[in-house]
Batch of 2 targets.
Target 1
Amino acid sequence: MSNLQNTLNVRSKSIPLNLDKEKIGLIVSLMALSILLSILSPHFLETYNLGNIGRQTSINLIIAIGMTYVIISGGIDLSVGSMLAVVSVVVASLMKNHGLDIFTSILVGVVIGSFLGLINGLIISNIKIPPFIATLGMMTIARGIAFVYTDAYPISGFSSKFTFLGQGSIFGIPVPIIITIIAVAIGIFVLNNTIIGNHIFGLGNNEESARLAGINIKKTQLFIYTFCGFMTAISAVIVTSRLDSGQPNIGVSYELDAIAAVVLGGTSLSGGKGSIFGTVLGALIIGVLNNGMNLLSVSPYFQLIVKGLVILLAVGLNTIRERKN
Amino acid sequence: MSNLQNTLNVRSKSIPLNLDKEKIGLIVSLMALSILLSILSPHFLETYNLGNIGRQTSINLIIAIGMTYVIISGGIDLSVGSMLAVVSVVVASLMKNHGLDIFTSILVGVVIGSFLGLINGLIISNIKIPPFIATLGMMTIARGIAFVYTDAYPISGFSSKFTFLGQGSIFGIPVPIIITIIAVAIGIFVLNNTIIGNHIFGLGNNEESARLAGINIKKTQLFIYTFCGFMTAISAVIVTSRLDSGQPNIGVSYELDAIAAVVLGGTSLSGGKGSIFGTVLGALIIGVLNNGMNLLSVSPYFQLIVKGLVILLAVGLNTIRERKN
Amino acid sequence: MKAISKTFPGVKALQDVDFDLLPGEVHALLGENGAGKSTLVKIISGVYQKDHGEFVYKGKSIHFSSPLEAREAGISTVYQELSLMEHMDIGRNIFLGREGQNRILGILDKKRIYKDSMQYLKKVKLNISPYTLVKNLSIAEKQLVEIAKAISFNAEVIIFDEPTSSLSEEEANNLFILIEELKKSGIGIIYISHKMSEIAKISDRITVFRDGKKIATKYTKEITIDEVLKMMVGREISLMEKKIIENTNGELLRVKNLSKKDSFQDISFYLNKGEILGFAGLVGAGRTEVMRAIYGADKLDSGEIMIDNKLVHIKNPHQAIAKGIVLVPEDRKGQGLFLNLGVDKNITISSLKDVSRFKVVNNKKNQDIAKKTVEKMNVKTPTIHQQISLLSGGNQQKCILGRCILLNPKVLIFDEPTRGIDVGAKSEIYKLMFELAEQGIGIIVVSSELPEIMAVSDRVVVMHEGKITGELKEDQINQENIINYMVGVTHYV
Amino acid sequence: NSTAGKKKDDGKITFGVTFQTLQHEFFVSMKKGLEETAKEHNVEILFSDANFQFDKQQSAMEDFSSQKVDAILTVPVNSEGIASSIKSAKSKGIPVVTLDIGSNEEVEDLYIASDNYLGGKLAAEYLTKTLGITSGNIFIMTAPEDLSIRERVDGFKEVLKDFPNIKIATDQHGGVSRDKALQITENVLQSNPKLDIIFSSNDEMTMGALKAVQAAKKEKDITIIGYDLSQDIAEEIKKGSAIKAVTAQDPYAIGKAAIEDALKLINKEKLPKKIGIDVKVVDAKNIDEVTN
Ligand SMILES: Nc1ncnc2c1ncn2[C@@H]1O[C@H](COP(=O)(O)OP(=O)(O)OP(=O)(O)O)[C@@H](O)[C@H]1O
Ligand SMILES: Nc1ncnc2c1ncn2[C@@H]1O[C@H](COP(=O)(O)OP(=O)(O)OP(=O)(O)O)[C@@H](O)[C@H]1O
Ligand SMILES: [Mg+2]
Ligand SMILES: [Mg+2]
């Protein structure tokens, strides 16, 4: 390889955005979709609607960041929706029924979300139950906890300071979008610039080689699932604030949306490779698609069909392209 | 004559009663659970209640038979619940709106179920989309189809001949139980006594070895997913008959129950080993647990927690035991 | 190391082996496949634990319970099998697991990682950006990355287990220069290779293994290659003589101009009935890929395959089997076995059709066939239902052979048929090959063991870097000729 | 004060209750009505949550039959599938009462519910008559797979027929839950900038719609009429938010009536086949008296 190539190589690859063919494909799809929608609906490109897309995507995207870590490591987390519900009702009840201040309530909620994730990690790394089953168990249990805790009543009506997190704007940018940008930045940074991030990739590539290389597998798994719980908790705070209500039945099937975003973004379900940037694109495609279909008043039942086809199409094209190389 | 031999053979050896330690563990759990429940509730052991357990378990178990094939082959099928809904509304509409006779309607329904499964198989074997994503797509699409087809209205009220399938009894044995027994027998026979059954195990053990051993991977995968669709369709007919109604929103999260039964029964999610007999035990444990919690009037929210814990406990004990060997 | 022993299920990999290494020395390990070289090395590097014996390191008796411990004690290893993370870049691979655990917040020092990696890559003369993903590298490049990784530990002992098996001559020479440098800085080196010329060039001492036992340790200068070879092979390869088949009854298989990009080009050869055709070549010469392509396991770019003088098109192994071609794959575990299944199912899975009616298997007949095969192949197993993963390698290999023979092949291709198999089993497998040849089956044997090739072949084709460099018959078949072709020298025949 | 039902050997009367869901405030209130009234009458209740799964409900009813409960009270997952379960329970001699949603074959012994169609009409009449809004663009948020919701929407649209100046801008599935409704309303507001009215057919969707309207700062421009009262909605009506009125059912009253009438039923008292529980429109004027 020539020197020039070397330098180019170094330059292009050191940026985490790593614009490989796959990502370019996704960006093109996203743009094509957007152009189509802006032709079909005059409202699509309005600033306010872009804010809508951002707000609506943020909840899925923040969860999907944690899910990206999980999937890169070769695992899966089905429990995010239920964990989200637990955090939602706990934060709501602390503020509303126990009179705690906003900050402490959120803090406790985030700690609880991370703790539930930690338990996932413990079950997976210590008892060695496969992630699918471990988090399936947690999915059921956490949902039960959310209902038992609230006796199925939503807990609503918070101070405007709290609802600002989900509904407010700073310099015209909706707060959920700002939080999402921070979460994405953290997600990218930790995955690409820290030791643990490096170990997550190693673990997902080959658990046995990772062990030979001296990586602490247990610690890494604990981190991954705790992080996923943490991100889910952040998302839960935003949902709770947006709805102005802590809801025990929120989050059902959120895991599927998150997984879809991650996989659309080019992260392989068999682990070892993937990127947060891809997940951002994946979540945006899903978000734009949902928004667009609402704008166009597509029947909700038909929306299901379109959504399924888009997932198959995107992943299918990707698979075919990969096989050709 | 060789037929006779075959039959004898089936009886003597290949019957799954291959009672390894794992199965014995499951049988003991099932019995312990039953004894506990019969002490706690005087109604548990009554014939009628046993019939209830059978009827209630049948729907999950029949799907779980197909799911066992899928999981042994190293795959997963998330779309069973949605496929069930499509078959349910198609059968209902053929009888009710198009005036077809029962037999033809059921036949068409079963063909459609198998066809949806075949599509899963085609996507997985030809486009090589991982089963999780392929069937996730199908899950969304088929649900959409069920809603679009019926415009979300349930279709109800069939002839008593049809409802006999789900509600009737022959010699005091509920018809769904009889159908389930036949399905289990077929499931065991095909898996243990046919070429394709052997190939399924081979595929699940090592796809590359299987290919080099001359196994037609594509054909095998097509069979597996079609078979899963077929079993789901049978289950759909029973549900439709039991409810006397074709319902577009039935079957949500059935895939999780089926997977739980299969995994509880000792079939490994990583493929290559497992048995229908284990799945029967797994489904029965779930069925007995649900029935028992109803009888004991455990709070519905708390039931979720118990169910999650039981899954974790059963799989966890298994994993720990396996690691010790 | 004193009196080291190690037993695996069915194999005595090492028996009472003594071994020592001095600082600044290159100590070569020699021996046939399965002699126990890698096992010894893996005990030293903490991957395996010894059964018996004593391990003294820097004057102290020591025991490593993990590779990590060995590495921290200053022993670094290039394993025979590559262990890189395919989807990660070179720099991250080199520093995986020791990115600098003490840094605050655990932030990666990327600058250091890539700068240092660049340095190590330079040392192995690999001029590639450390940001390149490993999956985009060729096998040789991957091997060089493994070597760069091994030297990056600043170890006192470095072990190379067949580091040049997939390197070109130039790349190998670079490695030798590097080894010379390491030696000068006082590092002790254990070097395993099957290539005599290398050993003669770089080693100070040689230890020869045979069947898990140490034969001798000698100074390289005081011994000739011929003497070493004698020690390695040792025993007379007293195999049953193959009966010469009078008339080989004409041609069975002919391939013309087979090519596959980046793997092999213009491969043409033929195979007669009852003939055993050896395929020799260095590891990576492309023999396996040729055979896989003929078998339909990989796609061909161009070329023709003829069976019984008829052109055939084979798209997958299923069709190959139907046409009478059967392959015994080289990677037993990865491509041959069904580890969770029993001996019986492993044997019969390809030929269930023969005992089936309407796709329903007559399980009794099937068991009988499995039982007969087990007897015929002399597989040592308690019952035919025994899970195959519990059998020794040789017995596993016999099961796969049994499976292939049940398919009644016309052409049987063995790829490394005796890899990791003990001596007794080896000669049984040779015996079987001869029997099959006598029945008129055409056999191709791909092997990296020269003695094996020489012992069984009627004719030998030699490959080098994806091309056929020569063909040897009858009395032309000798070590010198084969080695010459193997390294790419083309002679007049 | 009534010991009328005493007849079993153990002296305790047991009812089995199956809900289509207990993950919804409306039914939780109904459950409260059932529990508190049952306590008064010394009746034991076994609860089951079908979580919208038809066969789960069927299983629960079968299990109640096994336990020989004195009556089964059920909120059907929907009116179509329930008939076979009711027939099967009745064949074992157990009376069945349906709550909120009836069986389409009318096989139950007693049906206690509020009239959804009427409720929809009342909501529309409040909009057009009380508020006097007779023109504008309306977004109707529905969920057609749910029969009672469909009846509400049908009733509402029936009244709108007389007001051609009220144009249905869009008629969309609200996703049933608050978060989905919020998202959908945000998008609908986007594609219909001149929206004036929203009719939402259940309480959670009403709250979701409100949050979207608030976020879009259109609280002054849009009138929301909802169906079903919840604590959250009561707060909003009191506050004078965009939710001007909702048709309120009284789930607690349904629960209370269910226990009382079921006791009458097993004592073989004569009862009509259907008992209607009042629905009424609740707005800022009468909200305090309703919630107390
Ligand atoms: N993990 C294992 N389990 C069982 N048997 C093993 C294992 N590893 C090695 N063996 C066996 O031990 C013997 C010695 O193997 P080893 O890998 O040390 O040979 P080697 O001299 O390195 O051969 P090669 O030249 O092929 O690398 C062989 O018979 C092999 O099959
Ligand atoms: N897994 C792989 N990935 C990429 N390249 C490979 C791989 N395996 C082999 N190759 C390359 O393909 C070429 C031929 O390898 P092949 O395995 O066919 O050689 P061989 O002569 O059979 O050697 P061996 O003794 O290792 O079987 C070599 O250049 C090698 O580097
Ligand atoms: Mg070796
Ligand atoms: Mg090879």
Target 2
Amino acid sequence: MWKYIAKRLAMVSVVIAGVTLVAFSAMYLAPGDPAEVIALARYGDDLSASQIETLSDAEGLDAPVHMQYLIWMGHLLRLDFGKSLVTSEDVLTEILQKLPATAELAIVSLLVSLLIALPTGVLGALRKNTLLDSGCMFVSLVGVSVPNFWLGLLLIWLFALTLHLFPSFGYGGLEHFVLPALTLGSSMAAVTARLTRASLLEVLGQDYILAARARGFDERTVLFRHALKNALLPVITFAGMQFGYLLGGAVIVESIFSWPGIGKLLVDSIFARDFSMVQGCVLFIAVLFSLSSLVVDILYAVLDPRIRYDRSD
Amino acid sequence: MSSPLLSIEYLNVTFKTSKGPLKANEGISLEIREGETLGLIGETGCGKTTLGKAILRLLSGNAKIEGKIVYRDTDLLSLPEKKMRLFRGKEIGIMFQNPSACLNPVLSTGRQIAEIYRYHEGVGKKEAEEKAGEMLELVGINSLRGHDYPHQFSGGMLQRVMVAIGLALRPGLLIADEPTKGLDTDTKVQIAELIDGLIRRENASMLLITHDLELAGSFVDRIAVMYAGEIVEVGKAAEVISNPKHPYTLDLLHSLPGKGFRTVSGQAPGLLSLPQGCRYHPRCSFRLEVCSQVHPALRGFCDEHLTRCFLSEMGRRKETAPRSSLTEQSAPSYVEEEA
Amino acid sequence: TDKETEGTAEGAESGEGSQDLVVGVGTDVNSWYLDMFASGDARFVWAQVYETLVRLDSDLNVIPGLAESWESSDDGKTWIFHLRENVTFHDGTPFNADSVVFSYSNQSYVRQAVLRPVQSVEALDDHTVQFVLAKPMPLPFYLTHVAWPVMGPSCLDAEGNFVKPVGTGPFEFESQAKDQEIVLTKNEAYWGEKPLLDKVTFKVIPEAATRVIALETGEVDMIIKVPEYDVARLEAEEGIRIHRKLTTFTDFLQFNCEKSPFDDTRVRQSVAYTIDTETLVNEVLEGIGEPAGGRAYSPVMMYSDPDLETYTPDLDKAKALLEEAGWKDADGDGIAEKDGEPLHVTLVVSKGVWAARHNPMAQVVQGALKEIGMDVEIQVLDDGAISKLESAGDFDMILRSGYFVWGPYPRHFFVHHSGNPYSHYNNETYDQLVDEADMTLDSQEQEELYHSLQVFVIDEVPAFYLVHEEKIVATGPAVNGYVISSEDPWLNLSGVYLERT
Amino acid sequence: MKLLKVEDLKKYYYSGLFKKEVHKAVDGVSFELERGETLGLVGKSGCGKSTLGRTVLRLLEPTSGRVLFEGQDISGFKGSALKNLGIRMQIIFQNSESCLNPRMKVYEAIAEPLRLHRLCERDEEKGRVQELIEAVSLSEELLFRYPRELSGGQLQRIAIARVLGMKPEFIVADEPTSMLDPLVQAQILSLLKSLQENYGISFLFISHDMEVVKWMSDEIAVMEEGKIIDFR
Amino acid sequence: MTDLIERTVRTEKAYLAEKRLSFGEFRKNRLAVSGILLITVLCVLALFAPNLAPHDPLAQRLDSRLLSPSLEYPFGTDELGRCIFSRVIYGTRISLGIGLLVVAVTSIAGTSLGLLSGYRGGMLDEAIMRGVDIVMAFPNIILALVIAGLMGPGFSSVVLALVFTQWPAYARLVRGQVLSLRKRAFVEAARALRPSSFYIMRKHILPNCMDPVIVLGTLEIAHVIIFASALSFLGLGIQPPVPEWGSMLKAGIPYLFTAPHLTFFPGLMIIFTVFAFNFAGDGLRERLGQPADQEVLAR
Ligand SMILES: Nc1ncnc2c1ncn2[C@@H]1O[C@H](COP(=O)(O)OP(=O)(O)OP(=O)(O)O)[C@@H](O)[C@H]1O
Ligand SMILES: Nc1ncnc2c1ncn2[C@@H]1O[C@H](COP(=O)(O)OP(=O)(O)OP(=O)(O)O)[C@@H](O)[C@H]1O
Ligand SMILES: [Mg+2]
Ligand SMILES: [Mg+2]
């Protein structure tokens, strides 16, 4: 296992190289002359051709793409993430500033989603084909159909404007987490809940659950000590993926709730063709993503002893 | 003898299948007395396991149970599920027939035993693990292997883990479904003695489902023989073994390896297409006219020895009969045609 | 009015409520230095910290700023600014000619972009600066732009790295939390009318809907860029006040006049006759803004021709013009054809900040043009994609807003000047008119030229101007004394004070 | 040539998530088997019999040692050679109760090897499956049930029928009758025996029932702690 | 004990158990049937949109904007006075089309890759899973931009972009299942028959790991429909004014509080679709060769 973990950690660099390479080339393939778009972001609409040229020279944007990438990589190896092409801000500083907000929101949202999803899914499975189950299903299906931007605004309207319970925007104390985490969590919860239910139903039909019941355990023990661990595999997979998604893709929620996160930074940078910033963000997301998928893989082996990664048989 | 601990009356178990209802148990009436071991033998697929599971109401969702199962004055079938739980494990324990499916693959075996103590006796984790270790040692498995998961165990070891689990709580009634299958002779004897010893010491009762007639002969007080969903013979163990009254029992005893693997031609009927009359009559070498028309009832032969056979009713029983033996049996038809 | 403000100001001071104003803005300040454009809402913050040499009052009249007066040579190529004395920057360093030279040095991006004709900036003495230009140009108008203010040289350290904003404005920079908030405090030593507020916090709230709710919940006192569709609702709310003012921004439909079908003036005119700008304002923009009907200049701007004959919708005329140009719906499918080619055009809309306005506008335009048999395909694109289409000339129409509009000065006509790579219009007469107007010093003459330019745009339609935009600011119950102004930044906080209950 | 030759076969199990534990389940086993012969394998529970059986078939990769089938080392087999081996060497698993795909009906389970190796025409399939299920003394009505609707003994016999359908040359029979009553056991064993007589099938016959092993086998190997300690 | 008449004594409990069972059965079928019915309704809407829609979905009536539902406009009118009812009906074509196509392609592709990765293991697994990591960590927007730039806006580019970004979820989910399934006894038994690994994956592993895929797929439809509209803002998706539920929802956001019907009806359609596919999916799951007695106990 240690060997496997070491191998996987080494693979992180491959993923980084892959993601950044793809992102870099894709940025070039995206329409528009990068120098021009960057100049637009830097100087506004009043542009002169010479300005674009100077900028292109100064930032080395006229070099061939692969060279640019290699140069960037070279800097990276010296742990130099570069400066934003648009704002000249230090990329690393900027990302490290935003990352905590993103990570915190991701963790809280994931917790919220699991807190909603697991009980719902479990209840649905235990009370299969009852009114309660149908109720849980109804809520889940509606939950998954409601887009984040809609739900987010509705929550703000309800909890911030009407009930004055939570702030409507901003990053700060715990109360600031409630609405964005609820928005993100509830839409993810729907899928997780349904997955939990399906997976648990499958497990509950197994003979070893029958055997556990035969030992006189109450439902709770059967569920928590015997069934849940087996049923958790797809749930963990999904949660892991969502964590990754939350790290990089919660743009809409970040912008609705004015959350100073990395998602919006990334998207803004993409539109401004801010290569160094995009690369920085992508790199960090890739690292976190790889780690979360490694954690999930380790959890597999912990959950199910039959799963082994160093396959000697 | 003492009063009945468990009495089963007119038990019917019907499985709903895609091809219609399947009566896996039909009109079963049995008693297990306090301190008694009842052996249940019979052809595979005749409904023994079903009966055992029915007692604990552990049958799958497509089963319908009718009748009465009374355990110490409680009708188990009319209990709500919540109350039923109180009878499982502590009062009535069960060892399942298929250990490889009945152990949770993601929990270590030791933990699965320890869990029982923690739940039922409320002991701490440490103590429960110790007790689990003891239990494993009792069934001849090194307690260190308690950390291992079921897939790391051999078939016989899993079987023994099932035994350990079944015995863990010293239940008042133990339903043991082939507890010694897949064990080598020494281990088998050791396990059988272990179970028997515990049962006797606690003055508990046991329903022992087995195919091992020798085992049944030496450890069991009474024997019930099942065929195609019904009880065809019940009686004292020694009586049934030495003096079987039902032709099926007789055939069964004759087929024992020690006696040269004699078989009966034909096969047990599918439970969906039972023959009219006596269910054994197509294979029976004592077949009478009536056998194919009227379904015999289970009747007292002499006291405590019941059988479901017209022959015994009439007291006309030949001592020996020609029996198809191995040499006479033809190879299955498909073998003849070359592929 | 002076008296009034004084009275209320006193009232404000005696009130126990704090004077900490919270303003909701859409974007953060990404740059505090003049090597970059203060994009997005950064200008609103800059305007509190930095000041320009020349200023505009709320009705776009040019008034002295850091320069008390200015004069130009007869040929209009040399401008001399006399600077205000006894002004200090926030860090205590004195404001003088050197700081102006510093701010308009070659380093500043504005010298490379807009002020390219400027050849040199020199300090004649401590409080006099001379700008020498390559060609005549009404420099004071340019210098009103808030994104090109005067900064103290001490904002740089010895190595030339930017350290912190140093301005002369009524508020000084205190702190900034990236994409969260910017805090400014009162500049006690401000040379002009002292601010009544002690502290101004700008909260960054990108989503307009959230901004509005934040105002309603009282989390902020004031928000800018209120969406048109929220105005009626907010107005109805107690305590919330809506401030609207017509600005220099005008939405327009720019044609690609270099390729068919819009290389034909008649087709462009036909579009102009089809689109009812009044409906646009009333139905899409909730009646906020003024229908332009093709008028290039917002009425608030200098030389805007009040007697200009604008377009009124006339479908018959539009169809006739189209037919004249050879486009006729022969096969009855509702789309006109010429030489068998159906009249199919693209309309590009930016996905950027204006999208919320422009998307429905584009769809209305699309719906209207369908009436005359023009099949419009809308493309919502990001700026990169648009710039690609533009440089390739691969589009037919673009919906734009306030392009190149700074201050009251009609510099905007450069939009259709063939020297501008984005113009896609090539007309010598027009170019001549624009150049002449920009270089003429005589204001009478200028006015005539600009008027004829407006007529030219109406006749030739290089672009069809749709709506003169009204900017909207909403304030909460506590805010008093706010007056919205016509031009960037319309967030003048002088005279604003709070009265919290 | 011997049909099967096993040379110094070893199979170690490695377990543990973070620390390695080694379990020497089969530790240097050698034996030979003639065509049409049966080698009985007995030994205490947990001594490595099943592991040996599965390793011989290369269902478990051996830690070391060789298995020669008709003189060929099967460890190098790939692709169609390996597939072919599937028809020739088969195994009846000990835990037959969990060896059937829970989502496949009995019919499919029995027909699967036939289809897979094209052992019969499509239209004969039904007949073959019926023959097979009757051969193991089961009624046809089971064919359209799922495994969990069957009793232990029924499952075990279906596992047998599945293997017999392929008519392999060598079968590892890992306690094939452990869940059968004596009557049926006798039927099945005699079936196996008659098949052996007719087709020269070789068996590695694992069982605990000495009577059965003696009856079935030409030679008996006794295993202890992963090694064969005695041939009888 | 002399006369044992074969009679059954029905306990109350058994009676109840029977009743419950048949209710469950009925409900199960009802779900599947209603799922299929709902899907049929959606398909009918899509196919016969021109016949069913009372108005031209693109026709603007600026003098009747934001009307509440009425007889003439059953779902009211939108911000440009278009009939929401007609737009919603026409929207079925695109939204359902995108949703179905993307979910079908991604679930098939993702599942196949996940199967391969989990079953084969080793380098292949490593390669596929790191590919998954790369795709998932790679910002979708860049991809959308590139595709928009290269292919121009339209149905196929949306589908392409969505397919590319959505498959990894299935792959990872399936792989997790496969990892534990491949060690199950029945898989080993099947392997003893020496079929190709493709066969084992298809016949033995796939049917046993479809549950989460079906769950995910039927729910993803909603995400796909919404996500497709997000892309339209990058010039990739379906461009205005083509009716499409996600974009309608988004366009209605400004009027969330003043004219909620703008968002309500397209939202309702998405919910409706999700319900339809979920019911059908649940039915499919029950059908997928799962033994009849999934029910845990006969109570
Ligand atoms: N869930 C079920 N659905 C339908 N039929 C079933 C179900 N469970 C068991 N059966 C059938 O009921 C009959 C009795 O099964 P049971 O498991 O009780 O047999 P058994 O006597 O224990 O046999 P064995 O000795 O082989 O274990 C068998 O014919 C079996 O096919
Ligand atoms: N996957 C595994 N990982 C670790 N140890 C294992 C594994 N499988 C089996 N073992 C161990 O290897 C030993 C031999 O197991 P095997 O199944 O071969 O025994 P066996 O002789 O067939 O016993 P039985 O008669 O009880 O079936 C046992 O001690 C068992 O615990
Ligand atoms: Mg049984
Ligand atoms: Mg074994």
